[in-house]
Each structure stands twice: as C-alpha cells, then as structure tokens.
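Q: How would the structure tokens look for this protein?
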Amino acid sequence: MTPEIPSFAKINVGLSIGALRADGFHELRTVYQTIALHDLIRVSVNRGSGIEIRCQDPRVPKDSTNTCWRVVELAMIVLKARGRVSIEIEKRLPVQGGLGGASGNAVAALLGLELAVGKKLSGSERLRIAAEVGSDLPLFLIGGTVLGVGHGEEVYPLPDLPAMACVVALPEIAVSTPKAFADWDALIASSQKNEKLIKAEPSDRMSMFSRELSAWLSAASERSGRAAGVSSRAGGRAENLLLDLVRTGIENDFERVVFPQYPELREVKRVHERAGAKYASLSGSGSTVYGLFASREKAARAVTKLERSGTRAVVTSTLTRSQYWKKLLAASS
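A: Here is the predicted structure in token form.
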C-alpha cells in the first residue's frame, strides 16, 4: 500500500529581516509554529528510473523546480536506492500563501520515500538535505515551536506553545516573496537615506529580536516555576505563554511592505483583532493572515466575521511537537 503522509503547514510568530548576505539571502530570525492544516503526499517506487509528480492543481510545478522532486532526487542518492519515484500531491493548502506548503510537501515526500524504499536516513542527513533544498524545509523535521535563524534554514526546538485555536484567513491574493524582500530592501535604503531608520540597522534588528525572544523564554520559565505543583487548564497555560510572547512586541517585518501593497490584508488582520485574537499576523510574506484565539468558540465567531467581509477562513489549531510527530507516525504506520 502506498503510504499517505500529511504535509502540515506553519505560521510565523514574528519575523525579523536582517541584512542581505553575500550568498544572496537575507539574515532572518523567526519563530515557526506548525499547525494542523495539511496537504496529503503519497509516494511510491516502482521499476524504472526518474521522478514523476502528479497534482491536480495547475499552479504546482511538476518538474525539477518542485521541492519534492529536488529533495527526493538527493535522498535517492544518499539512500543508494533505485527505481521510478511517483509523488502524488493532494493540495489543500494555498499556493504562495506563506504557510510553507511546498516545503512541508517536500519533507513529507522525504519521509514517504523512506517508507517506500524501506530505508531510513539519519536525522543529520535529513536536515542536511532539507536545508540544501530550501529555507523552510528543516523546520518540518522538528515540528512544534521552532526558532529559525540564518536565512531560516538553521532551526532549533523551542519550548512548545500548548495547542490552541488558530484561525487561518486565506485571501485570494498571491504575494511574491522575492518581491517582498526587494520592497523591504528599497524601504530600508530609502529610510537610511532619509536618516529615518526603521527601528535600527539590520545587525541591531537581529539583536533586538534575540532580546525579545530571550525575554519571552525568561518570562515563560518564570511562569512555569510559579505554576509548579498548581493545576490549571491547558487553555490558560497556552494563553499565558502566548501573551508573554506578545508583550515582547514581536512582529512580522513583511507587514511593513506587504500591507501598503495589499491594504485588504491589513484589514483582514484588523478583523482578527476586533474578533478577540490574542495575536494576529501575516504569515511569512503572506497572503495568509492568522489569528490565535483562547477558544474554538471565539475562533469560530472570527471565521463568521471574516467570511461576512468576503475572506475565506478556517478554524484549525497549533500543533505541539509531540502532536505533530504523533500524527506523522500514525499516518506512516
């Protein structure tokens, strides 16, 4: 039987853009968070050679530009496996939505390939291959709440935010990430020329984000210490941890260039906030805008308000690291 692997999405809880590096990437700091929305990936290996990608969504590339193709091509060499690899992608996530759909697809294809050929890569080999293919891939080999540095490909597990309700708004807009970065560079250059810097120099911005994150982790640790031996509802713990993070002032820099281009996305964020979101933000460079809520009931009411304003939205939840892997392992068993 062909294994069917869920390919989960991510959101960014804060994203700070630093200087353009010599390798053409921007230095980044971000907190990734996996959520329960997902595509489905099916991988089979038969006689022959080459790679075949099948997907009914015409926006998904079916050649070597697809991240699934590239990750499988590298993995087949490392695994010393032979055969014709068929990858079927059942898309449920938006394309160019800021949810890491293509990256999650590639990691799911990698795990599906291991099952199909009956061989496993080491953890370090998985991460190396993932980082070589794309910036967002490695986070899907960790799951839960994850720190991303470098150009996003260097990842470290963070203490998990407990699972909580998440509303994902899906405007019918495709935001180009390369253009968003170019717009950011132009904004920084203009601000520096006019001596009106946005917050600080790029290197200082990275330090500022690191301080914000450290403040959150310190507050979370202190709260955990105070709560030791005291029972409380999981929802309350989730809300408190999130509020600790929000109080640091963490935000997504892409909003500064994407919202002026697409003011309807700014309005979607405002709808989230008016509906009672504890935190709302653009994910990645967009166009997805999400909100985190204290309960599914409040999240459901937010969806109603968003849909009345003409924006498609769904209720889902964040996934802790253990939940993420439990779902992946259950699908692959």
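The longest helix spans residues 202-227.

The longest strand covers residues 26-46.

Upvote if useful.
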